């Protein structure tokens, strides 16, 4: 039976111009890393949005899996 991934602690979605969304996600990552320490994994993902020049960007914080 495959191991289950831990559920995200939280996820933030940002929809807006690509440059602004990228800057905001970078800032969130910089702030979250010292706040949560080595116990979590912070990931980002960017996808196209409906409006031209806009993206849907996601910032997710997940507890690290035990090995």
UniProtKB/TrEMBL annotation:
It comes from the Bacteria. This is Uncharacterized protein. The lineage of its organism: Bacteria, Bacillati, Actinomycetota, Actinomycetes, Micromonosporales.
